[in-house]
Amino acid sequence: MVLTLYGLAAPLGGTATVAMTLAEKGIPYTFVSVDLQHGEHKQPEFRKKQPFGLVPALDDDGFVLYESRAICRYLAEKYAGQGPTLIPTELKAKALFEQAAAVEFANFEPHARAAYNEGVLKPHFNLPIDASALNTCISKLSDNLDVYEVILGKQRFLAGDEFTLADLFHVAFGTTLAEAGCDLMTSKGPNVKRWWKEVTSRPAWLSVLNSGIKTTMCEDDAFKSGVSEP
Amino acid sequence: MAILKLHGGKQATCTRRVATVLHELQVPFELIEVDVANGAHKSPEYLKIQPFGQIPYIDDDGFLLYETRAICRYIAAKYPEYGLIPTEPKANALFEQAASVELTNFDPSASKAGLQLWIRKMGYPFPTDDKIIADNLETLEKKLDAYEAILSKQRYLAGETITLADIFHLPYGVFVTYAGSESDSVMNRASRPNVARWYKQLISRPSWLAYLDGVTTTTAY
Q: Cα–Cα distance between B137 and B30 in angstroms, integer?
């Protein structure tokens, strides 16, 4: 009775986001790599699991779920009793979590992903970078991080003083920004820098970076260290 | 207990999303119009409440909240009897999957094309771009092929009953149809009968029909 995570074994994007959540909660899982390079994710067989032909997908003993944020939310609810509380339960605290989670997708993700596509993915495929396009998304991200600087000057994390999924959702794309030539996460201001250092130093993220995304069992010491203090 | 205040725009896209959900949940609310035309949403006072300088936000008896989907989730959680967010763990997970599908697979292209089509339809003096509209509608067509597969097996996106995940497709789901006709648009194609069926159900709901001419203060249902 083990969870199976289907996706890309790289420390970026949706698969890494789910892997970090699994590590936060100390949940063992089997990893099945999907051959994106050869288009396995677009084949009819894979589309049975994920009709949009995207990764990741999770199979929990026959219950199949896709969309990394939905998978993380499901894991946070199912394993609410172990590891840190990743989604608050009290009505108003939860609303503020939802506000922060919405901010991640509306104000961070589009520009961070665009910067990744332009500044990291294109060179990887030997395509020329459109400097103007890259500057535009970095500029938009910078404007929004000015707001993060204000928010994080009043509270420790994005939804309040506790770490939640809303912070976690930033990690897997945020860490690719440096590779795209954007150092905003550390240069924007002291509050964003402090917050970014905290969320990316969590043992759960370090285990994704150091041990990689692979089948993990409870006995794996490197994985055990991924269960962070709340 | 003060009436819930919705700060936004009468015709504004995201304000309409919140109003639709408030109507679904039969929650009385007062619309307080924010003078966006004169930059009220970028004033220091406004930024203290909504630091990104966006509309809408709500004031629920002193509790301030922004981001429409967060607002809608908060209200739906207050009135669980309407079932707009299922609570049973697996049903809830399937709801979250559908909500994430709307967010990541529908909204990016639907909001880009829809906003411009809405600007044109309303005759607002803002620039629009044929290519942006066309490219995003093309992306949306492909995404809706996956919706067709999902909706051929179940009535709504999270299962057999309507949830917030379906309702979040308003209003942009309507605005993208402005590029077509009533009998043939991206949401209503003969080649995707299940999407068309689901779309027609959404726009027939009283909560959508109530604000066709714009959001208004609603004190009774």
A: 35
- Looking up tokens 């001419």 gives B213
Contact across the interface for B93 and A74, Cβ inside 8 Å = yes
Report pLDDT digits (tens) over A116-130: 999 998 998 899 999
Q: What pTM value is reported for the model?
A: 0.93
Task: Collect all residues of chain B within an 8 Å Cβ-Cβ radius of residue A107.
Answer: 52
Q: Tell which residue, A27, A78, A56, A20, has the closest CA to residue A199.
A: A20
Q: Strands across the sheet with A29-33, in order?
A: A29-33, A3-7, A57-60, A63-66
Q: For residue A224, which of A207, A209, A201 has the smallest C-alpha distance?
A: A207
Interior/surface letters A52-91, b for 16+ CB within 10 angstroms, e for the rest: bbbbbbbbbeeeebbbbbbbbbbbbebbeeebbebbbeee
In what helix (H) or strand (E) does residue B48 lie, and over which residues does it extend?
A: helix B44-49
Instruction: Read off the tokens for A214.
Output: 């692979």
Residues A28 and A2: beta-carbon distance below 8 Å: yes
Q: Could you tell me which of B4, B20, B5, B3 has the C-alpha nearest to residue B215?
A: B20
**What is the nearest CA distance from B69 to chain A, expressed in angstroms?**
7
Put simply, the answer to whether A98 touches B74 (Cβ < 8 Å) is: yes
List of residues 6+ apart from B131 with CB closer than 8 A: none
Residues of A in contact with B141 (CB under 8 A): none
Residue corresponding to tokens 């990743």? A86
Distance from C-alpha of A101 to C-alpha of B71, rounded to nearest angstrom: 12
- ipTM score: 0.91
A68: chain B residues, CB-CB within 8 Å: 100
| Residues 6+ away with beta carbon under 8 Å from B175 | B13, B110, B113, B114, B115, B117, B118, B121
Of B73, B100, B103, the CB nearest to A98: B73
Q: What are the residues whose beta carbons fall under 8 Å from the beta carbon of A155, sequence distance 6 or more?
A: A161
pLDDT digits (tens, 9 = 90+) for A41-94: 999 999 999 999 999 999 999 999 999 999 999 999 999 999 999 999 999 999
The two counts, helices (H) then strands (E), for chain A are 12, 4
Cβ distance B203 to B7 under 8 Å? no
Contact A211, A9 (CB under 8 A): no
Tell me the C-alpha to C-alpha distance, in Å, between residue A216 and each of A2, A25, A210.
Answer: 10, 13, 13
Q: What is the DSSP string of B201-215?
A: HHHTSHHHHTTTT--
